[in-house]
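Lab notebook page, bench 4
Experiment: in silico fold of construct C2
Operator: M.H.
Input chain length: 323 residues
Purpose: comparison with the prior construct
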Amino acid sequence: MSVLGIDQITYAADDLPTCRRFFSDWGLALKSETADELVFECLNGCRVVVAALGTPGLPAAVEEGPTLLEVVWGVESETDLARYATAIANDKDFIDGEVEGARRIGCTDPNGLAVRLQISRKRSIDVECGAMNTWNAKPRINQAAPVYERATPIEVGHVVFFVADVKATADFYAKRFGFVGSDSYPNRGAFMRCAPEGGHHDLFLLQLPSGKRGLNHVAFTVRDIHEVFGGGLHFSRCGWETQLGPGRHPVSSAYFWYFKNPAGGLIEYYADEDQLTAEWQPREFEPGPTVFAEWAVDGGLDGDTRRQKNADGPQGKFLTEKK
């Protein structure tokens, strides 16, 4: 029994028309739209809901303004759902009901976030990814690596929150849902994955000296490093603002590109994270710029020139050509 990953997230935002354009440019498919709610899907059916701030029935927010209100995690079977219901039955705001004809259970985590579980609605998909040739292994033969004109994210891969008490919140996810620690910033941050075998993290919890609570970012998994670049360049051409990237994380090995999000926090394309098993030994790191990013482009790349923002565009000459 283990949680499979993120099935749905719910934002509350104050500008739905802008969010409609934002998430469409991001590469999500708009599945339904009303005056106070947008529903998007990733390639595998993972949902992103954007509701208007103040809509009745929404979970309570942990911070003011646009933010993430709810994370719905998927499980495999009704048996798993029943076991988790027993585990959280005495937790704050416990619920056990139906959403769109399917059972959904949930409660509120120690940080105030609405946590939900349901039998996963995500579908299995088969996508082509760019193979990378190294000195020892060269799987890409007589074939160019892909170039993407835009990204079509596969799923929501992980969420990151600022929490008031990182130990209490990490313990909650470990004891209630079986999450496993991958790495940590001692007393400052916890990287957690849903199960012993999986990607480096599905959840990252950060504790600031101020005790601030709220959303840091939501990360969308794409096929490979080439789609990180292609998606970021397209998004830049659409006029959206980079926060940092592209770059590479040393802790998880993933390539990233972060943008500012009108629905709250930041949003990330990422690919090529470490895959872990039960044999993995968690490491401890001291947070710092070089721990966060092995390398990163400040301000992003211009989608038209393919150069760093505000840098001179290509002139049609070889780089080694002398004047």
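Observations: DSSP finds five helices and 20 strands in the chain. The longest strand covers residues 5-13.
Next step: discuss at group meeting.
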